[in-house]
Amino acid sequence: MSGLNLDDFATLIERPDPGTRRAAEERRERTGVAPGALGRLDELGEWLAGAQGAVPVKPVERPKALVFAGDHGVAALGVSAGPKGGTKELVRAALDGESAAAILAGRFGVPLRIVDMSVDCDPDELPAEVVRYRVRRGSGRIDVEDALTAEEAEQAFRAGMAIADEEADSGTDLIVLGDLSVGGTTAAGTLIGALCGTDASVVTGRGGAYIDDLAWMRKCAAIRDALRRARPVLGDQLALLATTAGADLTAMTGFLLQSAVRRTPVLLDGVVTTACALVAQRVAFRAPDWWQAGQASDDPAQAKALDRMALNPLLEQGVTVGEGTGALLALPLVQAAAALAAELPERGVRS
What we know:
By secondary structure, the protein is of the alpha/beta class.
């Protein structure tokens, strides 16, 4: 996998400015609001101040919901509630404004961008701007074969980086990151299980539509077999993604790392985005400082990965539908934190 050196990210990614974060904390103390009275809103305001490098915090005015889409070959084993190759219909529903994420994005006035990385359909069936970065049609069945070739993995990773640059250059000030897939949570569970060194049963969740016990057992067996294939490449994160992830998860990992380079804060959604974040943390240990976990989805693999990254979910609504839906619910909380951090007047410290 020549031409892409992931080690560079560890040097390029810096932490949000700690001096600015301290200045934001000192400003909050001068408002006279008692310490802890605003709960996690104080922490969020200080996080935004460090990410923006600004005190008072600037309002979050140009957020965007960004969803990476792809089909996974492992869905052929019956590990998901949706059918193999069913992602196209999910994408169409989102584009038509009929999905949960699309409805919330419309309600909150947030643009929704969908990026097809590996949807299993003819590219002519989706808009040109959606398929522009597509790497392939579907992915390999990760229990018995690689999801991607080495070249495809690098292409997908670079696509994620390019999209991060596009969003930063366009003025997007916060990303709500989501996924659209059938079989994606199986790939996510494999990544988390491999990186956390756990057994398949520990990281096998019920998916977005709560599969029954038989499907859960099939999913657990698929993750078990995929873990056997993942462990030999644990030292090479791009090879790990090629082996067990797919183009959508690989692109999300590149996106998360390049967004941290570009100092763009990100709200993570469910287990799939969290799995990508865990891979990105392995590449650059400072990268998680640029992310917040929007919500806890009740997936055991997500909980394990968030604990590993020391990320505490903003909400615990158990939303598993994906597409960034749960993280969108947390967006108003972040915007409220920005408004309070910026607009509460300084009155001196209460006695």
